[in-house]
Design goal:
Length: 260
């Protein structure tokens, strides 16, 4: 966005003066990944020109600035990506709910004391074999859904239910163009190889050959041309907080002609 989008679509903004800062409350980014992949992800971000600040919890967000403790950082644009909040339905329960609205469930993914109620996906706190909560990923939710369907079938056949067991098939995270990390247990990948693997996995998971072909064509066009499918229209060229680019001679001539 800073290298191509701003230069092409916003003639009043100087991309050379734009900085991107990533604030992470924890001691490292991507805490669900192994520590070596977190370091490689941070290195890839810095290569892309991103300033990474760890152990920097945000205390407040105001128009034009972000507070980290007692320090105010100027910010013309703020993007909040600190996770998701569970459905407010979980808040109706008096107990078994954490501060984000997630519900603690029994090993068979049912609500404690209510074996007829299943809770799965981002709304449930499901612990893995090591006792840590499973991440809120689509792969976890899909396996929970299939396991729940099998347990419902067991109940209809008067068979005992089985506790949920998550099979970790690996985790991928994309960072940017030719930048990603992949965790497959003992196999750790980063850089272009992980990025290509991320693309391949997402295309394979799409339903239907037509959808896959359309996504491949759109991604290929976006990669080689760096032209996005969306445009932002603002009310003027004077954008507060953004570094202003001096008007070109052609723009001055057009402005003078308009005023005359």
């Amino acid at each position: 966005m800073t290298r191509a989008g701003l230069r092409r679509d916003f003639r009043g903004i100087d991309p050379a003066g734009v900085t991107v800062t990533l604030l992470e409350a924890g001691p490292r980014i991507l805490p669900t990944f192994p520590e070596d992949l977190s370091r490689k992800a941070e290195s890839q971000l810095r290569t892309l020109g991103v300033e990474v600040r760890t152990s920097s919890p945000v205390s407040s967000v105001e128009p034009g600035r972000v507070w980290v403790g007692e320090t105010a950082l100027p910010a013309a644009l703020t993007l909040w990506a600190a996770g998701v909040e569970a459905s407010p339905l979980g808040g109706l329960l008096d107990s078994h709910v954490d501060r984000t609205g997630r519900v603690t469930v029994d090993p068979d993914l049912t609500l404690p004391g209510h074996p007829e109620v299943y809770v799965i996906g981002d709304m449930a706190i499901v612990r893995g074999r090591d006792g840590t909560p499973l991440p809120g990923l689509a792969a976890v939710a899909v396996q929970e859904g299939k396991w729940t369907a099998r347990n419902i079938g067991r109940s209809l056949r008067s068979e005992p239910r089985t506790p949920f067991r998550y099979v970790d098939k690996g985790t991928l995270a994309t960072i940017g163009r030719r930048a990603a990390v992949a965790d497959f247990g003992p196999i750790h990948l980063s850089g272009t190889v992980a990025w290509l693997l991320w693309l391949f996995v997402h295309i394979i998971l799409l339903v239907g050959f037509r959808n896959r072909l359309m996504v491949i064509a759109e991604w290929g066009w976006s990669y080689f041309t760096q032209v996005g499918s969306a445009r932002l229209i603002t009310g003027g060229t004077d954008l507060p907080g953004w570094p202003q680019r001096p008007p070109t001679p052609e723009a001055r001539l057009k402005a003078d002609a308009w005023e005359s």
